[in-house]
Amino acid sequence: MKKxxxxxxxxxxxxxxxxxxxxxxxxxxxxxxxIRENDTLFFVFEYMECNLYQLMKSKGKPFSESEIxxxxxxxxxxxxxxxxxxxxxxDLKPENLLVTKELIKVADFGLARxxxxxxxxxxxxxxxxxxxxxxxxxxxxxxxxxxxxxxxxIIAELFSHRPLFPGSSEADExxxxxxxxxxxxxxxxxxxxxxxxxxxxxxPQSGSINLSEVVPTxxxxxxxxxxWLCSWDPRKRPTxxxxxxxxxxxxxxxxxxxxxxxxxxxxxxxxxxGAKGAMDQxxxxxxxxxxxxxxxxxxxxxxxxxxxxxxxxxxxQRKLELDHQVKPESNHxxxxxxxxxxxxxxxxxxPVRSKGNxxxxxxxx
Length: 365
Description:
The protein has 13 helices and 8 strands. It is an alpha+beta fold. It folds into 3 domains: 1-47 and 301-331, no CATH class; 50-251, Transferase(Phosphotransferase) domain 1 (Transferase(Phosphotransferase), domain 1); 253-298, no CATH class. Helices cover 33% and strands 9% of the residues.
């Protein structure tokens, strides 16, 4: 990192470090080590093969729906874990989703923020193509719903290999959104009209189109989910917990977080799909915590303790194994009433998207 850091306290209080220390989940990238050398800070993360954008670019053809379902199921489990612990990411995009084979992990928590932190929040967050409309309209207060919007755009992109809302500027981004969702009104997003008026912005007038025109390879369940996630009004978007109950994820093998993270004495395995997921979970139960699912004993990591690290040159400090040092705070847990009452039944008919330029042509960095 470019900034100079003159104390460990300053390093450990960094937003990214604080958020990663509070989250231990198989679908959140692990911060293995923090090194401060000559007042310069280095982060060491676990190895992942590539990010989702690189995978899309290298494959050249759309993914199957089962692949998309498997990856997104894992991401929403990570987001559920994160949001329940009082954080939202604010910069979800394909480049920040790291992939190794069938496993996907959320990375880059540099813009992560505590839900209970005081507004006003930063206006410029997330890459423009995945930025929620309330952020585009410079709302001073927003929530984890911005992550849900980003995931709706990402899911559509995984199907079509084209960004759903590829705006060239903030104003053009809103135009692209209106061209698919239609211009918001008092019924769809009264708060958005107030935000626009506060900055003297007028929404372009446009009708909505059917999402199936934009993402023709997606199933009805997938289109319904994308439509729900990309609701104009952030209060009408689902939580990550609600998304995991959506029919699109019905084929997935799911263990509720309250059970998965309880100390049961069994090893956990990354989420997976269908019968394979059931077999993976069954096999994992053969091995107690401290063993690997392949039958080999776990590596003894006791040597990673800072007390056992040999002396190094002056000016070099290390902090190891941050994953379990801070327990999540119980008062940060978010809930939504009646989450089990099939909330997706409230959705309007699923819209569809328009054909755009090839996704690979000009990816915004």
